[in-house]
Amino acid sequence: MRDALVAAAFQLFLERGYEQTTVDDIVALAGVGRRSFFRYFPSKEDVVFPDHERCLAEMTAFLADSGDEDEPVQRVCDAVRIVLRMYTENPTFSVQRYRLTKKVPGLRAYELSVVWRYERAFADHLRGRLAGRPDGTLQADVIAAAVAAAHNNALRSWLRSDGQGDASAALDHALGYVQQAFTTPPAPADEEPEDVVVVVSRRRAPLWRVVQEIESALAQE
Amino acid sequence: MRDALVAAAFQLFLERGYEQTTVDDIVALAGVGRRSFFRYFPSKEDVVFPDHERCLAEMTAFLADSGDEDEPVQRVCDAVRIVLRMYTENPTFSVQRYRLTKKVPGLRAYELSVVWRYERAFADHLRGRLAGRPDGTLQADVIAAAVAAAHNNALRSWLRSDGQGDASAALDHALGYVQQAFTTPPAPADEEPEDVVVVVSRRRAPLWRVVQEIESALAQE
DNA sequence: CCACAGGAGGACACTCAGTTCCCTTCAGCA
DNA sequence: TGCTGAAGGGAACTGAGTGTCCTCCTGTGG
């Protein structure tokens, strides 16, 4: 029944447009009552995103049952792969929907609220894990937004190519950029218990300048 | 007239809630015709955000007339301060609206679409400036999202404090985190032609270890 | 002072999304 | 056979948003 409504809706949306199609048209084509439509979809927009509620629940569960030892950013990056998989499982449907949402402002707004719920799930998870750090909630919000933006960037370029390219590889690449940005570079800290780490840049200077800099750096604290 | 409609709308929204207030109620209180409401505000939601259209135009203009020599990320950070200023100029109004949007899902969705347009303006500007780099659009999207998230984080904590704290300082702090994340660390390059920069971390080590590390660091290249 | 054009606002009716209430149907069961 | 509860259908209603036409007000030229 749900599937019949989705199929009828997309058939009409594609041939005459979203706003030119009324709910009555959809239920007439599907051969069901108007009231039944709103039993399955709380609004006309929901029929365009029939699987997001399930995907959001799945992703939330994935984040919820992550062990304490996991790297939180890594976990969120893995979670966003679940979302991408939902798109790539039905390439033609995803591409059709993309063309639709690109045209209709109302659908774009609805999609934003969906994306926002994913982002909120990321941020909530990171908030819990980064609670100890000084700017925990700030970092959580910013990293969540960056991960979502990387996902959207990879997804949209895949959708623009009509589902031809390798979306998963594009997402990995984009997430790599985000992770590189948000993992503090001067703290290897776990590969080997090093007592001292020295970073020297700009080597075209005489040795005495290096020593001078070291002395001032050591003297500051 | 616009102001009268906004005032009447907020009076009713605050005393009986957004969804319990019809457009007819608003125009009755303001003493104008129903049709006039929709002349000034294309939808009922727009009356809640009466100044965003102007602010968006102002911000877009600010981004448009930026010289080529400016640091693009810095420019976007300056642009987002314009948005924050719009909020802090009317603290009580902003706080009232915040309480409203927090409760009403429809208003939250509308606010998301507004925020998205700001973010799009950031991303478009960065896309133009970062077009040369290999992952230009990806970096533009991610940085734009991070800047917007930092702004929202600072704004929301200010709104939660009923407009008491220093929003501007909070934003500066948040933007500092974003800039630190997205500016490649080993390239100061413009503050002063320094010949050598030394970073020493983990100082609880004997001096000979420090020297040893320096020697190996210098020997590597 | 009068005629007139144009824009701002108002009155009314209409479409359509979403809701409420109630009806029918049918399966399972005592 | 009668009962019950879930699934669906259907009519009527509310309210947002739109289109159309009318009125009023204002400024301008004769």
From TrEMBL, chains A, B:
A Pfam short name: TetR_C_14
DNA-binding among keywords: yes
Entry keyword set: DNA-binding
Domain (HTH tetR-type) ranges: 1-59
DNA-binding residues: 22-41
UniProt xrefs under SUPFAM superfamilies: Homeodomain-like (SSF46689)
Protein name: TetR family transcriptional regulator
Species of provenance: Streptomyces longisporus
Lineage, uppermost ranks: Bacteria, Bacillati, Actinomycetota, Actinomycetes, Kitasatosporales
